[in-house]
């Protein structure tokens, strides 16, 4: 069985992964058929690059992505795009849907960032209040 999975590279505590197509019986960092992308989890935000046409080709041939790679592919919007192609949508419809999807993703990221900032601010205020009450 052919899998689309991660191959670790980089140095100690600084991982960089290649997204590869490999036989499921080969070791994690062993023999592979093709490199179809890269993933850098240490960057903020994470960097994911995919050769979308090659991932689509291999998935069409029956390659199964692992759970982690599946979530990475989903994060790039490729699964959504492939689903629309499978449903028979036109290229123009797919392009407009992908623009909407990207806008929604950006809105989600912005919302997540603002929520984190609010939580940090509230936590600092609570710590300051507890410190001032402990002093007095």
Give me a quick take on this structure.
With 136 residues, the chain is an alpha+beta fold.
Looking at this structure, what is the CATH superfamily of the largest domain?
Answer: Ribosomal protein S16
Q: Which spans of ≥5 residues are poorly predicted at pLDDT below 50?
A: none
Whole-angstrom Rg: 21 Å
Q: Outline, from the CA principal axes?
A: flat
Largest sheet properties:
5 strands, mixed
Topology order in helix (H) and strand (E) letters: EEEEHEHHH
Number of helices: 4
Q: Could you characterize the architecture of this molecule?
A:
There is one protein chain. This protein is α+β, with helices and mostly antiparallel strands and 136 residues long. The chain has 2 domains: 1-88, 2-Layer Sandwich (S16 Ribosomal Protein, Chain: A), CATH 3.30.1320; 90-136. The chain has helices at 52-60, 67-76, 78-86, 91-135; strands at residues 2-11, 14-23, 34-40, 47-50, 64-65. A 5-stranded mixed beta sheet has the order 4-3-2-1-5. Helix 3 runs antiparallel to helix 4 (91-135). The radius of gyration is 21 Å and the shape is flat. Residues 114-136 are annotated as: Disordered. One of its GO terms (biological process) is translation.
